[in-house]
Amino acid sequence: PIEEVNTPGMTSIEQVSSFLKMPQSHTLKAVFYVADGKLVFVVIRGDLEVNEVKLKNILKCFELRLATETEVIEAGIVAGFVSPVGISGIKVVADDSITSGTNFVAGANKPDTHLRNVNYPRDFKVDTMADIARAGAGEGCPRCEGKLSSTRGIEVGHVFKLGTFLSEKLGANFIDPAGVSHPIVMGCYGIGLGRLLAAAIEQNHDDKGIIWPLPIAPYHIYLCPLYLENPQVETTAENLYAELEAQGLEVLFDDRKESPGVKFNDADLLGIPFRVTISPRT
Description:
The structure is a single chain. The protein has seven helices and 17 strands. The strands form six sheets. The chain has a five-stranded mixed beta sheet. By secondary structure, it is of the alpha/beta class.
């Protein structure tokens, strides 16, 4: 049977699981969202996080965000001690992880109190049951025996399957060979140029800044003549610049009358793959 337990000031899953000496997977987490202006109560196993993309698709809403503390309190909810047991007047969406265990700990909808031995569907009902959890490292693949691995990365491109969600609303249909109308299955893709540059820089840099990979470098060669007031240096640099350009190379010709230190420092900051230095001594 359900049993009340005193949990003074324990408002987070971490605090409750530590206080009751039990794993977070034996708790129920309550998360509140606002979907198209309406409050939604999400229930998920305590060791998991909500995948908001999945949730948005399940709710079929245009706008989804976390509810503010004020919105939760105005709905008559005791923040930090919320329970799906006895909740009413709010749409409840549950992750199917809650069906894989028994005797969970959940809030009691009153301050400083939690409930032991909470079970679905005996003790509470939900409006929608679905997979809305964020996948974690080590979880099994639903199609094979593989395990999910997790590494950090940068999204430089993406493909989204939009399905028929937008086409149904816009009336974008096609006629199949049998003459039957169907909504178009939509998708989109994109490449983030800014993210591509960020990824390249993250992989190719030193303590002075960028080291451009040759295929995406803004210039192939940094031509650095020193002491341009010397006619021989000036002539040699201009001739070499013309020759390199004629060969199809992109050259940044630094014809400023600056000191060698300034030019070398700027060259390091620019990170152009090759540097050619011309001076009276060379």
